[in-house]
Amino acid sequence: MSYPTSDHSWFARAGLLPRVSLLRERGEHQESKVTNIELFFDLVFVYAVTQLSHALLHQLNLIGALQVLLLFLAVWWVWIFTGWVTNWLDPERPLVRLALLILMLAGLFLSIAIPDAFGERGRLFAGSYVFMQVGRTLFMLWAIGDAAPANTRNFQRIAVWLMASGVLWLLGGWLDGQTRVLLWVAALLLEYLGPAMTFRVPGLGRSSTADWNVEGGHLAERCSQFVIIALGESVLVTGSSYAETFRGSSALFAFISAFIGSVAMWWIYFDLGAERGSRSIRQSDDPGRTARVAYTYLHLLIVAGIIVSAVADELTLRQPQQNTDVITAAALLGGPALYLLGNALFKKTVNRTNMPLSHLVGLVLLGVLALTFNRWPIAALGVATTVVLLVVAIWEMRSLRHVRELMEERSHG
User: Fold this and answer.
1) Which of 68, 254, 321, 328 is the most exposed place for a label (fewest CB within 10 A)?
2) pLDDT reported for residue 1
3) pLDDT score of 28
4) Are 123 and 173 in contact (CB under 8 A)?
5) CB neighbours (10 Å) of residue 176?
6) Cα separations (Å) of 298 from 41, 57, 291?
7) Structural domain tally of the chain?
């Protein structure tokens, strides 16, 4: 569907557009920097990630895991959509700062509701979530005005999709039990299908990734920061758990192993992966497409793996000598597996290569451990998963030495 260039937004016709542009200035060789207000906004999600890991730890069963998965998908979606918006908006503008602070407050309510979102705080969770998703989108429409007609139509379509899912969220918040779960699952499916379907709306057409002219370096850095948030929360959980137990050599051994595992996770993502991803999206002919797949969707697996691993680390510190059962093994092995799979797919996508052999071998080794989990004490299995992560990190570091040297040459050149 084509649109006339004179098509004005409702805000323009009503004379309600901002007097000063709220969009970032874009230059040919100018990169958008992550601002302090964006980092301040992220603090809410440190709390959200902590709430998610604690909720999973206290409901370590299939139903609990599925509930936490649903809540995690919602938390990630509201954060990544805000990351996309601040890629276009200038957070140094007072009105944009105010909007982020309001979203931050709503995010606190969202995080507070997480432990009992399927109980008495369902309305609070749904209301906070819909307010953030729909409210931010409407603000974006107002802020764009007529400055970017293609993006205005893009956010009109996004608003339709989010309003439709918002009805399901709110209905689920009012209803209880299985009905709430079904409505919220339907709402999430609708939202996650949106980017894949390019937000097609009857009468409004569909968006194009070419319209999503993101500044790739900024979005890559924002997603890297969320990975740091998750890793930081993992380290905090490990430290707090050990401080509470602080007994025996086995607990100390498990504590050191958990810390080394977190370091290995950091190394696997940040040694070269994050920088290569950032360079790839900056040089892409269609950065919107790369951002949709590599950062919007695939980073889900990476962050989820860190959260599950944090839960596993706490289990190893609480009961290091106990034999591993199915649920504990799922946490101990599932976290690293999700993390390696997410990194492998991410690196394959941004580097346009095959999946890294080191990551595939790591997944195979975790599979072997899964076949023998009932023979391991919890702490010993935790150490084994740490060894697997170390093997992957060292393997990739050595195999990509020439890539690192080439990147250093280009940066100095």
Assistant:
1) 321
2) 33
3) 58
4) yes
5) 13
6) 22, 24, 10
7) 2
pLDDT under 70: residue ranges of the chain: 1-20, 27-31, 246-247, 405, 407-413
For the entire predicted model, the pTM comes to: 0.91
Claim to verify: residue 257 and residue 388 sit in the same structural domain: yes
**Nearest to residue 38, comparing CAs of 95, 83, 77, 81?**
83
> How many C-beta atoms lie closer than 10 Å to residue 106's C-beta?
21
Determine the residue type at 169: W
In this predicted model, what pLDDT tens digit does every residue of 158-170 receive, in sequence order?
A: 999 999 999 999 9
In a domain, 22, yes or no: no
Q: Please, which contacts does 285-290 make with residues 24 or more away whose CB atoms are closer than 8 Å?
A: 286/209, 286/210, 287/212, 287/213, 287/214, 287/215, 287/216, 288/208, 288/209, 288/210, 288/211, 288/212, 288/213, 288/214, 289/209, 289/212, 290/216, 290/349, 290/350
Reading the block at residue 380, the tokens are 């010993």
Residue 176: DSSP 8-state: -
> Of 371, 369, 393, which is closest to residue 382 (Cα–Cα)?
369
For residue 375, give its domain range.
216-412
Q: One-letter amino acid identity for 201?
A: V
